[in-house]
Amino acid sequence: MSTAPEMDISLEQVRRSFGATRALRGVSLAVGRGEVYGLVGPDGAGKTTAIRLMAGLLRPDEGRVRMLGEDPAHPRTRVREGLGLVPQRNTLYGDLSVDENLHFFARLFGLSREDFTARRERLLDITRLGRFTGRRADALSGGMYKKLALACALLHRPRVLLLDEPTNGVDPVSRRELWELLYTLVHEGMTLVVSTPYMDEAARCHRVGLLYAGELIAEGGPRELARQHGVAASNFEAVFLALVERHTGGRAA
Amino acid sequence: MHPLVVQYRAVVVKEVRQTVRDKRVLVLLTLVPLIQLFVLGFAVNFDVRHVPTAVVDRDGTVESREYARTLLAGDTLDLKAEAHDEQTAEALVERGEASVALVFPQDFQEDVLRGSGARVQALVDGSDPVRSGVAADAVARHAAQRVDRLIQEDARARGETRPRPAVELVPRVLYNPELTTAVYVVPGIVAMLLLIVTTIIMAMGLARERETGTLEQLQVTPLKPVILMAGKVTPFVLIGLVDVGLALGVGAWVFGVPLRGNPALVALATLLYVLCTLGVGLLIATLSRTQQQAFVGGFLFMLPAVLLSGVLTSVRAMPDWLAWVTYLNPIRYYVEVLRGSLLKSAGLGDLWLQVVLLGVFGTAVMTVAARRFHKTTA
Asked: Where is the ABC transmembrane type-2 domain (chain B) (predicted)?
């Protein structure tokens, strides 16, 4: 797959193994600017590996990864200034408060005092964390923690935001709020890659890539994929199961 | 302000906040070393006094009683029991009730008066070499003094107006005249505690970042690994300097360790030494995936490092091949600086080599750690 100039992210025939486990087996995909791309698949499909490769936290064994036109794993890359990551795990400083976490990451991204003040206000507003600024991060609920992680990742106004299962362990109300928040970001021109095991979330993406056992078994718009399989877009689970069955010849069904 | 300085400050502030907030770590960094210094200062004691002694006086004469009385008059040997025979005395030594048994033979006084060479047998418990060595030395020294006195008395009895001068050894102990163990040991304990605290805390701190995933979060920011490392190290360097100041204060106050040297030299050596220990901590962290691995790694490093440093045992007492290994140990040089400066008021002119070597080790360890850290995080 060629990298078109408007593509923010591309993976070309990427393979990555961890010992004997082949996490990705020749995956190629591209994400355009301003797009919400969903990496959908069950646990162990290779979603997190793909996200980590995009973030430059891993190098591919084979193939090529491009993020904003650069190799994200190169030591001198400037990609990090335009990239935000919300990992699956809780990776903020639990013993620092909401405000201290925000302040710390703002300093790392080089935000000026004035810029930080304005940005903090805006992010606390959209994440509704304003009342909890003094609370330790490890004392936040699951949903609030994810929102804080999102706020920290958005401080420097990244062009691309990678979210690894952001709604995992989050209650339905917070899930809906989080998706509303993500749409706000997309309206501002941000490119989003969201990995999720929840099939209903696939319908919220512009395009989805269905990962199964390290392979990209289908890619396209959720409505388009649903139409191809004669089911409603809201019943994406049926689409996924049909695709897996076709891919494995019924062995996984 | 330069962006790198801003990042460095942010990491330092974060580290200080986390350290201050974690009361257990704070206690571990400040109070525990002082308590350990206090306890170890008393516990590690090579001073041999009041050795329990059994006496078997089979002669029972004025001469044998006088000999035993004068031998037990000092504070090295204390009379624990009087036994009737050698077997009873040996049993006392075997049970650990006595460390020394003095056996006076039946004809002791007669042999002395005849000048035919009287013998006193000293049975010494060799299971504690230090204690038995000192006890045997006290018995031998007393015997020599006694012989000398007898020669002088004999000469006077024969009417010699000018008794033959005996050879007299007049030892004068410099720097630690009382030969107090604590004065020698406390600087070593300071170095040891600093090693334990800084290496383990550093190794576990970085391993925790890796284990909890915060390191990964930092990797997707523009923060350079070297700035992260510098920011993490800085608070612990300062804590190390404070620890040494407090420990030496306690050493002087409680154990009478003299503080004769130049404080600036001690501070410089401490700074370089802490760079070495923190560098080792970082290196261990780069080789560990979990805090548990980091802790075990730190422990496995520290035990041989302390034993091969001259902190608790003399390097001169080691076999040559092992003594060479100590030249690769920065603890050795730091302890030499502390002892030289504090006890002998030696200056940079005397201790420059040790200071330079500490600097070389510190730079080398930090460089290797930084490279490995960069490789694992970049």
From this structure: 132-376
Residue A71 CB burial class (10 angstroms; 0-12, 13-18, ≥19): middle
List chain B pLDDT tens, one digit each, 378 residues: 888 999 999 999 999 999 888 888 888 787 888 887 777 777 766 667 788 888 998 888 888 888 888 888 877 788 888 888 888 888 888 888 888 888 888 888 888 777 777 788 888 887 776 677 777 787 887 777 777 777 777 777 777 766 555 555 555 656 656 556 677 788 888 898 888 888 988 898 888 888 888 998 999 999 988 899 999 999 988 988 888 888 888 888 888 888 888 899 999 999 999 999 999 999 999 888 888 899 899 888 888 888 888 777 777 778 888 888 888 999 999 998 998 888 888 888 889 999 999 999 999 999 998 888 877 665
Query: Chain A, 60-79: which have a CB under 8 Å from a chain B CB?
Result: 75, 78
Number of domains in chain A: 1
Buried b (16+ CB within 10 A) or exposed e, B256-295: ebeeebeeebbebbbbbbbbbbbbbbbbbbbebeebebbb
- Residue A137, min C-alpha distance to chain B (Å): 13
Establish if A15 belongs to a structural domain. yes
| CATH at A223 | 3.40.50.300
Signed CA dihedral, A217, A220, A223, A225: sign only: negative
Distance to chain A for B307, nearest Cα, Å: 37
In a domain, A95, yes or no: no
Is B18 close to A94, i.e. CB distance below 8 A? no
Closest CB to B214: pick one of A56, A84, A93: A93
Chain B nearest-CA residue for A113: B6
Q: Chain A: give the shortest CA distance to residue B14, in Å.
A: 7
Give the nearest chain B residue to A155 (CA atoms): B221
In this complex, the residue of A75, A87, A103 whose CB is nearest that of residue B217 is: A87
For residues A102 and B52, what is the distance between their CA atoms, to the nearest angstrom?
A: 68
Residue whose token pair is 């797959």: A1
Asked if A138 is an interface residue toward chain B (Cβ–Cβ < 8 A), one would say no
**What is the rounded CA–CA span in Å between residue B169 and residue A19?**
73
> Inter-chain contact B221–A57, Cβ cutoff 8 Å?
no
Q: Where are the alpha helices (DSSP H) in chain A?
A: 47-55, 98-108, 113-127, 142-154, 172-187, 199-202, 222-228, 236-248
Report the run of H or E that residue A29 belongs to, with start and end.
strand A21-32
Q: Domain-by-domain residue ranges, chain B?
A: 3-45+180-377, 51-157
The minimum CA-CA distance between B245 and chain A, rounded to whole Å, is: 29
Its domain, for residue A38, covers 7-89+162-248
The hierarchical CATH code for the domain B51-157 is 3.40.1710.10
Quote the Cα angle for A168-A174-A177, to 5°. Answer: 115
Closest CA to B126 of B136, B138, B140, B115: B136
Single pTM value for the model? 0.77
* Contact between chains at A108 and B14 (C-beta distance less than 8 A): no
Q: In sequence order, which residues have a C-beta less than 8 Å from that of residue B110 and are 6 or more positions away?
A: none
Residues of A in contact with B212 (CB under 8 A): 89-91, 94
